[in-house]
Amino acid sequence: MTFRLKILGSNAAAPAHNRNQTSQLLQVRNSVFLIDCGEGTQLQLKKHKVKFSKINYIFISHLHGDHYYGLIGLISTMHLYGRTTTLNLFGPPGLLEIISLQLKYSDTSLKFDINFKEWTPEMSEVIFENNYMTVETFPLNHRISCSGFVFKEKPLSKKIIKENLPADILPSQIAILKKGQDVKDGNGEILFAASDYTSDPRDPFIYAFCSDTKFTTDIIPYVKNADLIYHEATFMEDMADRAELTYHSTAKQAAELAKKSNAKKLILGHFSTRYKELEPVLAEAKEIFENSYLGLEGTDFILLE
Amino acid sequence: MTFRLKILGSNAAAPAHNRNQTSQLLQVRNSVFLIDCGEGTQLQLKKHKVKFSKINYIFISHLHGDHYYGLIGLISTMHLYGRTTTLNLFGPPGLLEIISLQLKYSDTSLKFDINFKEWTPEMSEVIFENNYMTVETFPLNHRISCSGFVFKEKPLSKKIIKENLPADILPSQIAILKKGQDVKDGNGEILFAASDYTSDPRDPFIYAFCSDTKFTTDIIPYVKNADLIYHEATFMEDMADRAELTYHSTAKQAAELAKKSNAKKLILGHFSTRYKELEPVLAEAKEIFENSYLGLEGTDFILLE
């Protein structure tokens, strides 16, 4: 029942101070999602011993290079390593055109398929769903079309209180209890009441990834109540004008967004190269939202092992 | 009068064993040439403290990703760093189309111009010339169109033997001597004979870069007598069949080419990831051509400081 996030890159625009460009790896149970893929992401994956073959889903938030220039290299290496499993790629219009052009000129016929799901950056839509989770996009406010993502578990089954179960109960009856329903006999009489044998499960986990964006409360309906929220914090508050101008946010604004959206934990990232030391960035966020963290390379945020 | 080469990447296909993908930096006097630009080249440049602003010429040998996926990131970072100087980009057909598409989708209007010189990969042509050197392409034999480059100094002026010069000689007369011509008076009488006041200069330096290629003696007319020759050595001789199949060369073949072309020094590179240790690769080449070297990251080959 894993739910864990690993940061692979935290710097804005260009790599600096041993900080790479944006990339994150989210594992939810057996599904491994790569979120953005700045240049050199394949090296970061190697460094952190992530098997490329485990990555079946890649999401690219927008087409600024620091968020996707590493994608074609990663795809090429997957091909060289003999990958045959389909890769599911989610991105804005244009991404597949770029990748296809590069593959055309290298005369590469990939050994695996790329299933491409293009979304409409101006709206919110569920772009991925399996039996235990969904991924929904939402529009951010950046210089070019840019989307955020909400990774959300589906509601969990009721938890069975094993010590209460009678010895003769059938597996099919337990399955009914797990749904929160009472088990009845042919006459509609209750044999086993769900309330006697089950307890409520934990709430589904939510991870909200807010890629490059100007501060905007418009996104709160999408990201509210997240267990983990990542929000870019390119600048500090004394450069709020610069943030506004470049369609980025400050650490304070990231913290305000986390607070207003009732997040449990905030991860800061996409730091401007001008900040070699990041403690002041963190301190600025913590003044507003105590449970703030720097999303530095190699850091794990684990909701469930 | 600098003539020096720095290796930035030496691995084939994908990065491995702390070896990057192909990239080299050649400095001839004031001209700094970047030759190929695998993913992460900008990080290698930073590591070796090369100022991006000094690079005015970039040559891409072919459109396999391990030779150019780092280019768009480097261009983007140059833009972020405020570059305004024109960048001269030399590459095969398709390169500018790829770069332009990426810039279009990121809505980036570069602060500097890219002058693009496209060559015809099937032929040899001089694609760059200044007052002291030329760069000539030549066709290699690879799976897709691929060019090698010869960086060649122009013939140098005669060297003046200062201690022989009379005190009253004029600068204009010295200039004539440097050309190897005698200085004459109005009647055609020799005032200063070039042979008395000059000595022969050294031969012009030649660096031949043989990118990905199957072994072929067809390139010898282009690369002959090189002071430095780089030749790919993806495999060792026990995998000659594999080299043939994939349009690559073995270390032995690289050495044979160096020998047949009368090179002074051979640099090996583009090593397959299967070779973690490279001493056997070097040993194989040295059996044929003693003056062979591994072109590993950070290594400098200096003809003139």
Give the arrangement of secondary structure elements:
The structure is a homodimer of 305-residue chains.
Chain A: E1 3-9, E2 23-28, E3 31-35, H1 41-47, E4 57-59, H2 71-80, E5 87-91, H3 95-105, E6 114-118, E7 126-129, E8 133-139, E9 147-153, E10 159-160, H4 171-178, E11 183-184, E12 190-192, H5 194-197, E13 198-199, E14 206-210, H6 220-223, E15 228-232, H7 240-245, H8 251-260, E16 265-269, H9 279-288, E17 292-294, E18 300-304
Parallel strand pairs in A: 3-4, 4-5, 5-6, 14-15, 15-16, 16-17
Antiparallel strand pairs in A: 1-2, 1-18, 2-3, 7-8, 8-9, 9-14, 10-13, 11-12
- How does the helix and strand content of chain A classify structurally? alpha/beta
Low-confidence stretches of chain A: none
Strand order of the largest sheet of chain A: 6-5-4-3-2-1-18
CA-based shape of chain A: globular
